[in-house]
Amino acid sequence: MKQLLRAIPSVNELVAETEIQQYLNFYNREMIVDIVREEQDKLRNAIINHDQDLTKFMVDYQDETKGIKEYLINKIYQMIQSRTEAKFKRVINCTGTVLHTNLGRAPLSSGIMEKLTETVSNYSNLEYDLDQGSRGSRYDHIEDLITTLTGAESAMVVNNNAAAVMLVLKALAQDKEVILSRGELVEIGGSFRIPEVMKQSGAHLVEVGTTNKTHLKDYEQAISEETGLIMKVHTSNYEIIGFTDSVSRSELVEMSHNNGITVVEDLGSGLFLDLTEYGLDNEPTIKEVLDTGVDLVTFSGDKLLGGPQTGIIAGRRELIQLLKQDQLTRALRVDKLSLKALEETLRLYLQPEQAREKIPVLNMLTISQDEIKTRAKLLYDKLSEFITKEYKLEIESNISRVGGGAMPTQELPTWVVTLTCSSTDLHKIWDQLRQQNPPIVTRLQKDKLVFDLRTVSIKEIDIVASKVTKVIIKGE
Ligand SMILES: *Cc1c(COP(=O)(O)O)cnc(C)c1O
């Protein structure tokens, strides 16, 4: 052991090696030296702890001293590669979940990228009024688009919907009471909980009704001098079914306005187009909600809307004005990349049929069964060419999900390719597929590996096929 430890080359000796020298030409020397030290330490510990892999490796070398050096240089090389490569990257989503929050929610339409690049890689009129030649507002660029699409008087955009909800509560109900039905005390993934957000904003929550039933009189009886807002929250990721009752928007609005109280609704996802003809739940559009008289609505830009991460607030002008003037707005403001991506996404909505085709989320939600089956067949055929006997491939019907906390009970019929195997552990294949470039993310359902073609484009099928083949045939 001592002999092995003594054979570990010094930092200077390692850094002088050509394989490592070349990196010093363009990377920070300190980073390289740190990596060299870390790898020396790891090797030292491996020797002391009689690491199995290391022993096996060493046996392959005649000359252990030389072996140690080569082993170490190889490890250092791999670590430099891994530390300098991009970690945040494209993946292929074979899960069938359209708005997969862990996989970046809404993929943006590739058509808008050119416009995005042009605007943000040059100077822009982000906060410049070109007519007056003076300071302008970033909120002005898309206000008209949002009001046109929703019928709202006014609108603004912030960092995300969580920020939108926080801003509305803080600016309109700080130190006041906000009345909310018990059935709507929502928690969204990533620890966004309405009661906590309420507390952070400085508003006081007044819960009314019960989990399954809330009546108009429950709201009415809770109104006091202290009431700042009446709030509704979309129960995005669950549904209460059975013996239930909730108050219709128009009834709630009428009663609230008679009492001089503002009604706000956190719609969560927010939908511009009616998708019922494609078999999707009758989720109200933003326009329909505003038409019932709700004073303000908030929703996400990257859920059913299919745009970038943003939070949109739309509704009455004087309320939006108050929000724009609030100090918190500066901290929650939308950045220029997201703003431009949102503008281009919203412009697509001006032609609804264009929007349905070109916005990937809408396209994937409304795609025909035939189209999905064609894709499944294509993947099946490509894989069949290579697959060996112990594997079994099948085309089956299955269910995709909307995801992203939208339409929780909506089942989208789909076609999938499934893979089963008598010998190899499918879990291992599932793991290895995620280590590919690009990574392939699939679902393990019972004893099958499932590739749902709803979320895989025609262009991606070749990539999926080649990666699956690589993993299965070569085991890498
Ligand atoms: C998703 C969601 C949010 C949070 O929106 P983000 O854009 O993710 O910040 C808030 N409220 C509801 C009801 C939601 O569904």
List keywords for this structure.
476 residues; alpha/beta; Aspartate Aminotransferase, domain 1; Aspartate Aminotransferase, domain 2; 3 domains; 7-stranded mixed β-sheet; 4-stranded antiparallel β-sheet; 21 helices; 17% strand; globular; binds pyridoxal-5'-phosphate
Topology:
Elements: H1 2-6, H2 11-15, H3 18-24, H4 29-48, H5 52-59, H6 64-84, E1 92-93, H7 113-120, E2 128-129, E3 134-135, H8 140-150, E4 154-158, H9 161-173, E5 177-181, E6 187-188, E7 192-193, H10 194-201, E8 204-208, H11 216-222, E9 227-233, H12 249-258, E10 262-268, H13 286-291, E11 296-300, E12 311-315, H14 317-325, H15 328-331, H16 336-349, H17 352-358, H18 360-366, H19 369-384, E13 391-400, E14 412-421, H20 426-434, E15 440-441, E16 443-445, E17 448-452, H21 458-474
Parallel strand pairs: 1-15, 5-8, 5-9, 9-10, 10-11
Antiparallel strand pairs: 2-3, 4-12, 6-7, 11-12, 13-14, 14-17, 16-17
The chain binds pyridoxal-5'-phosphate.
The site of pyridoxal-5'-phosphate has 16 residues, from helix 9 and strand 10.
Domain L-seryl-tRNA selenium transferase N-terminal: 5-44
Modified residues (N6-(pyridoxal phosphate)lysine): 303
GO biological process, one term: selenocysteine incorporation
Structural classification: alpha/beta
Strand order of the largest sheet: 4-12-11-10-9-5-8
Q: Looking at this structure, what is the CATH superfamily of the largest domain?
A: Type I PLP-dependent aspartate aminotransferase-like (Major domain)
Q: Specify the biggest β-sheet.
A: 7 strands, mixed
Radius of gyration: 28 Å
Number of strand elements = 17
Poorly predicted parts: none
Cofactor: pyridoxal 5'-phosphate
Domain L-seryl-tRNA selenium transferase N-terminal: 5-44
Catalytic activity: L-seryl-tRNA(Sec) + selenophosphate + H(+) = L-selenocysteinyl-tRNA(Sec) + phosphate
Subcellular location: Cytoplasm
